[in-house]
Prior knowledge:
The complex is a heterodimer of chains A (526) and B (115).
Chain A: H1 11-25, E1 30-31, E2 57-59, H2 64-77, E3 81-84, E4 103-106, E5 113-117, E6 122-125, H3 131-140, E7 145-146, H4 157-162, E8 178-184, E9 190-192, E10 226-233, E11 235-236, E12 241-248, H5 253-266, E13 274-278, H6 279-283, H7 301-311, E14 316-323, H8 326-338, E15 347-350, H9 358-367, E16 386-390, E17 393-395, H10 398-414, E18 421-425, E19 429-438, H11 443-462, H12 475-481, H13 484-500, H14 516-522
Parallel strand pairs in A: 2-4, 3-4
Antiparallel strand pairs in A: 1-2, 5-6, 6-10, 7-11, 8-9, 8-10, 12-14, 12-15, 13-14, 13-18, 16-19, 17-19, 18-19
Helix pairs in contact in A: 1-2, 5-10, 10-11
Chain B: H1 2-14, E1 18-22, H2 30-42, H3 49-58, H4 73-82, H5 97-108
Helix pairs in contact in B: 2-5
Amino acid sequence: xxxxxxxxxxxxxxxxxxxxxxxxxxxxxxxxxxxxxxxxxxxxxxxxxxxxxxxxxxxxxxxxxxxxxxxxxxxxxxxxxxxxxxxxxxxxxxxxxxxxxxxxxxxxxxxxxxxxxxxxxxxxxxxxxxxxxxxxxxxxxxxxxxxxxxxxxxxxxxxxxxxxxxxxxxxxxxxxxxxxxxxxxxxxxxxxxxxxxxxxxxxxxxxxxxxxxxxxxxxxxxxxxxxxxxxxxxxxxxxxxxxxxxxxxxxxxxxxxxxxxxxxxxxxxxxxxxxxxxxxxxxxxxxxxxxxxxxxxxxxxxxxxxxxxxxxxxxxxxxxxxxxxxxxxxxxxxxxxxxxxxxxxxxxxxxxxxxxxxxxxxxxxxxxxxxxxxxxxxxxxxxxxxxxxxxxxxxxxxxxxxxxxxxxxxxxxxxxxxxxxxxxxxxxxxxxxxxxxxxxxxxxxxxxxxxxxxxxxxxxxxxxxxxxxxxxxxxxxxxxxxxxxxxxxxxxxxxxxxxxxxxxxxxxxxxxxxxxxxxxxxxxxx
Amino acid sequence: xxxxxxxxxxxxxxxxxxxxxxxxxxxxxxxxxxxxxxxxxxxxxxxxxxxxxxxxxxxxxxxxxxxxxxxxxxxxxxxxxxxxxxxxxxxxxxxxxxxxxxxxxxxxxxxxxxx
Lengths: 526, 115
């Protein structure tokens, strides 16, 4: 099957460019010409049709010089490149490019752990390093540092951080915990941020700010450069660890839970990412929907009650952990008992009491930085693999939590899907993640899920909620909602795009930022 | 308290460790690929969502793929390269063809009874 190509490239130009890239880095690391392995770069889980967003080619460099050689050729022929690190951004697009026909720049071969410093507690890594890989390295070398993995441990440290991913330990805001980047610009310029620009520095991974403007953020969720190295702060292993779960009986308990969590988080009584998880998110790791309900549409309340009783779960299930010397943890636990534990109907569970509970166990592992894949069990709820995440942000208030929950649940049920969600409180903000699960093998259901997602974006924006991250298919729509002062921010993003990448070769359309030569056709800002 | 102080002391002693980076040895062993890409979902217990799904569909005896005698190498190759429903495919930069052969050999060896 002939590859779909960007419409400004002739098959001859494309073929010449790919041949030149293959000559530059070795043809064994170039996949093209209808090779069936190209299909492994599609998004296996999205609301788009199966063959949407298949790249025209994949090229996998192994270092800065390879990347610079590829960029030179891409600039010459205007070949659009789509960089991925480990390509596990599932629910948001996975390894797939924004448009079919782009060339995926697969950085997975660049997976060196360049340095681990136990004294200052950091690692310096390349984009291809996965959470599993760094965890194994620390274990084998008996280094007493914790990583903070995303829920699926096969994801990458650099990619997740650049996408503003969150984790479960006290280091759960990944971008906040990064320190120092090395970046290649589309024209091949190589530079380092922060203290990394001082030739003799020992401070690149211990001080984030350097001298002058802090540019790191410009290279997150953007298409302005390729991050080739990144420092990540790691948490020293504490002398004690105490994960816990509190179950709540009623749906509207979400309001008081959230109101109670806010001061505990703002004052750092709860040190890690605090998650209020709905019943089905927790249950789906253990049971499938059809074990409780064989009809169509969302699972009825009677079945929900049965699941709660069978698995000793709440309508809401609050997970967090304490860290430190045992006497300190015991004191803090008493504060938790007197606050979150004092809500009527609350029951606090210890690790010992839930030692045979797979959902508790995987969260207990995540909160102590042990990567795993257990949360992928959510996909067994309906089967078929389809899932896409809707992730609006709000302040941590009971009113906002209930408003978002009711709004999304109502639409979700109206469209025939279960509400499956969780509220993550990092510090002051709340990430609400609604996982829209659907059967990808059912064409009508897939399209219905797609329609629902688009509706949720606009309704949330009208209520003042914006997404912190989204799937490829909805990047323009979400970008459009950040419209203050006539889309001034995205117009500035376009000016930056033109300055960093005048030929528009790097990830065109990423986060709704289109290069000049594609703007007329795609952009919504002008 | 003594134990706590000695723990902190030990941490300080070890604190000067700064390891240089290491390049991985390739091709990876089958066991290493299993750890990086398979075991998370296919550990044969309630925390392995792939294993749980196989158990639900085909029963206890087909739950574990490690040590399975019923999986043909061609079938494993097909599923790894193309994915299957909830399982996303692995890409050539995750696992090369040579490494996939090593992984298939590793899967065919009986699981450690201690597991």
